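FORM 12-B: Structure-to-Sequence Request
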């Protein structure tokens, strides 16, 4: 079943649901660091490599990690990202030794729930001046809400608090429609953070 879904993932996500998160994140990165090229980056929950496609030409070495071997196979087949690995995000971050100057997470933190631990893992691996850019669906009725879609939504106050507790600082927060669900727009936050020190 998952192998079948991986084969139609891009169509389902981009055409059917109107997912725009990778391209919106890339726009926020460009706004924060116009024309900047990143030497070493990591895309958490990379799926089929849409974030790598959105950042094409702006990175020298951009690794993607995802729990699904089927998604990784699609990313490799599509040649969007030459460096992909099957791994859980926090585990992969904890095993890395090289500093990263860009970490992204497009439409993946909705499956994580509490973000405190993951943010700390990201902070440990960020190089000085490195950026952490991600999207979350915005919760307006609590800090952390599990929706009927089985996707988590996070409030801006929760995100700011988790960022600060991880020794990161917010560089930019913007609101936008991330995708659609049964025709209804799903609003979210596009966040760019960096190390506080």
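FORM 12-B RESPONSE
SEQUENCE OUT:
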């Amino acid at each position: 079943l998952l192998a079948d879904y991986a084969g139609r993932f891009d169509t389902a996500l981009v055409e059917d649901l109107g997912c725009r998160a990778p391209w919106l994140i890339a726009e926020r990165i460009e706004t924060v660091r116009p024309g900047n090229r990143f030497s070493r980056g990591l895309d958490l929950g990379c799926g089929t490599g849409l974030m790598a496609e959105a950042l094409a030409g702006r990175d020298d070495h951009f690794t993607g990690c995802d729990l699904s071997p089927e998604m990784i196979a699609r990313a490799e087949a599509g040649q969007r990202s030459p460096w992909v690995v099957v791994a859980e995000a926090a585990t992969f971050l904890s095993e890395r030794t090289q500093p990263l100057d860009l970490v992204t997470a497009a439409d993946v933190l909705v499956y994580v729930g509490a973000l405190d631990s993951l943010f700390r893992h990201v902070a440990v691996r960020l190089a000085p001046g490195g950026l952490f850019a991600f999207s979350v669906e915005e919760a307006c009725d609590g800090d952390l809400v599990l929706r009927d879609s089985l996707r988590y939504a996070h409030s801006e106050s929760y995100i700011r608090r988790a960022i600060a507790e991880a020794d990161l600082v917010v560089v930019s927060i913007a609101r936008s429609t991330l995708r659609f669900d049964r025709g209804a727009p799903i609003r979210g936050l596009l966040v760019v953070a960096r190390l506080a020190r």
